[in-house]
Specification:
single chain, alpha+beta, 8-stranded mixed beta sheet, 8 strands, 26% strand, disordered C terminus
Length: 197
């Protein structure tokens, strides 16, 4: 399904627009938890920030909260830890939501990290890529991108959660993009591999 620009502008103003990425791009910043916890599968949600009637970037906070709630339910975690910064952490989505929605709309930001655990084991790690603050490469440019990492391929689970929430809220999924199955090695690791042969 394709959407014309006028329709997307209306939906962005009222409900929200996201893009979904399965896997990695060469410019994907890979958190250390991917390697230390063996969370090699990536599912990313790109939250667009350009709203025509505002002269600033905006985070789609209500849509994010609903998506995170659905993802937690579908993934099956029994506990969640949300880090808005190094000093502020939340042990429930509702506590994070209460503080977030107290802020003016143009002051709201996504959390830095999300930890979903089951039986004290980390089953899903989320991290925000703050491309809205620096531009960034396509398809992430000028966005807040929240990447979720898991041990098993849970694309169908994540995709169903996003589809259901967007349908209920009247938001649209602009595009689904298939990336690389695994992250590319940093240049210094490639160099080390060459010289260690």
């Amino acid at each position: 399904m394709s959407f014309n620009r006028e329709y997307i502008v209306i939906v962005m103003n009222k409900h929200g627009v996201i893009t979904i990425v399965y896997g990695y791009h060469p410019d994907t910043p890979v958190p250390e938890q991917v390697y230390t916890e063996n969370l090699c599968y990536r599912f990313a949600i790109i939250f667009e920030t350009a709203f025509p009637e505002y002269n600033t970037i905006l985070f789609q906070s209500e849509l994010f909260i609903e998506l995170l709630s659905a993802i937690k339910t579908q993934v099956g975690g029994d506990s969640i830890q949300i880090e808005s910064d190094e000093k502020k952490q939340y042990q429930s989505i509702n506590l994070f939501k209460d503080d977030l929605l107290k802020l003016a709309e143009d002051e709201r930001m996504p959390p830095r990290r999300i930890f979903l655990r089951k039986n004290n084991s980390l089953i899903c790690f989320g991290e925000t890529e703050f491309w809205a603050l620096c531009g960034g490469p396509a398809p992430y440019s000028d966005s807040y991108t929240v990447s979720f990492y898991t041990k098993e391929n849970m694309n169908e689970v994540f995709n169903a959660a996003c589809s259901n929430v967007c349908s209920e809220m009247g938001a649209i999924i602009r595009e689904r993009i298939q990336g690389l199955p695994y992250p590319e090695k940093p240049w210094w690791k490639k160099l080390f591999t060459v010289f260690s042969k």
